[in-house]
Amino acid sequence: MVAIVARKTGRKAARPRSPSVALVVPPRVRRLKPEGCIVLPSIDWKTYVRIDKAFGHDSRHGMRLNYLGGELEITTTSSDHKRIKKIIGRCIEHFCDESDIWFSAQGQMTRQVTEDRVAEADESYSFDRKSRQVGLVLEVCISSGGIGKLALYEALCHPEVWLWRKGKIEPHKWIGGAYRRVSKSTALPGIDIKLIEELSLWKDDCLAVREYKRRLSTKRPKH
Questions:
Q1: What are the C-alpha distances in Å from 120 to residues 26, 52, 65, 71?
Q2: Cβ neighbours of residue 207 under 8 Å, at least 6 residues apart?
Q3: What is the pLDDT of residues 147-206, one digit of tens each?
C-alpha cells in the first residue's frame, strides 16, 4: 500500500470548489433560409385550375399556390419555414389541450370563395365542433414580396390571421369588413404570443415545444 504524505506549506488548504453550473443557452437561428417565391401575372382562371391540378391540388407537399385577381403566387417552403410553422402550430395545439379548447387542425387546405381568389394557409384551425369553420389562420413570411396575405384572406373573412415576420407574430382580427392589427389573440384568449415568438427562433423544434410545455406548466395555478 502506498502512503500519501501531505507536505506542510504554511498555507491554508483551499476550499474545494463547487462544480460550476453551465448556463444553457437555447440554440437560436441567426440567419433564416427564405422560401422560394415567384408571382406570375396575367394568369386566367382556367390556366390556374390546370396548374393546380398538375401539382396535385391539396395532396402536394412543400409547395403552395395562392391566386388573386389574375396573379398566381407559387411558393416553395424552406427548412426554416417548416420548422417555424411546426413550432407555432404545436404550441397552439398544446395550449388548446391545456385550456380544454376543442380544435381541429386543418393544415393548408385550399380555400376558394370566388374565381379570382384562392388561398392556401401555412396552418389553420377550427374551434367550432359543429360548423368546422376556420377560426385562426397562420402565415409564416420569411421572404418579402408576393401576394399580400391579408388582401388574400379578406374575401374569406376568417376571424383571425397571424402573420409571422422577422421573429414577431402579428395577430389581425376581422373587424368591420377589414383586418385590424390587435395586441392579443381573441380566438385564443390568454395565449402568450411573446413566448411563442421567442421559441419560434429556436433551431430545435422538439426542444422549443418542450420548453413551451414547461413554462406553461409553471403558470398553471397550484391546488
A1: 32, 11, 6, 14
A2: 26, 27
A3: 999 988 988 889 999 999 999 999 999 999 999 999 999 999 999 999 999 999 999 999
Residues (pLDDT < 70) of the chain are: 1-27, 110, 113, 221-223
Report the alpha-carbon distance of residue 143 to residue 96 in Å, rounded. 29
Q: What is d(CA 24, CA 37) in angstroms, rounded to the nearest whole number?
A: 36
CB atoms under 10 Å from CB of 85, counted, come to: 21
Q: What is the pTM of this model?
A: 0.83
222: its cell numbers: 397550484
